[in-house]
Amino acid sequence: MNLQVRKVSAPRGGSRRRQQQKSGLFKFYVLFYCLVVAGVLFGALNYQIDLNRKISKLQQSSNQAKQEIKDLERDIQSLTVVKARLSSWENISRRIAELKLPLRPAEPGQVRYMTFKPGNRERQVTVYDTTQHNSNISLSHAAR
To answer: 123: which strand partners?
Structure first.
């Protein structure tokens, strides 16, 4: 038997291949990491843009609602002025004279007062007794 001690050399290029494989795997991980980071950044940026778009839509609808509220308040104020003008005694007496209505004030014996107290409000209602004159029926409400 021939027993000689000798060195068994590793095949040439084996370590180089392992180094290239490690280098390729490292490149893959770095590329994967960069893609994940880029995806997260892109998602965050897209989310921020979407939130800004929603905020601007909400601000626009809020401004429209505020404008509509202002318009309605202006209409209410205008209608209140018109109501006050039309329900004034001067306007009512003028219209009675224009239409030549045979109306007369109630006699003192025809007037009765009733007071209602619902909750904290007190309201007095004037009721006219029309049993004496069937042709002249009238009611008047006076809020206190």
So the answer is: 116
Is a pLDDT exceeding 60 seen at residue 106?
Answer: yes
Q: CA 141, CA 117: separation in Å to the nearest integer?
A: 15
Instruction: Quote the tokens at residue 64.
Output: 């429209």
Q: Distance between CA 81 and CA 84 in Å, rounded?
A: 5
Q: How confident is the model at residue 114 (pLDDT cuts 50, 70, 90)?
A: confident
Please give the Cα distance from 73 to 95 (Å, whole number). Answer: 29
> Which has the closest alpha carbon to 48: 37, 56, 35, 60?
56
Q: In what order do the strands lie in the sheet with 123-128?
A: 111-116, 123-128, 139-142
Dist CA 34 CA 28 (whole Å): 10
**Which pLDDT belongs to residue 126?**
64
Judged by DSSP in three states, 137 sits in coil
Using the 8-state DSSP alphabet, how is residue 125 labeled? E
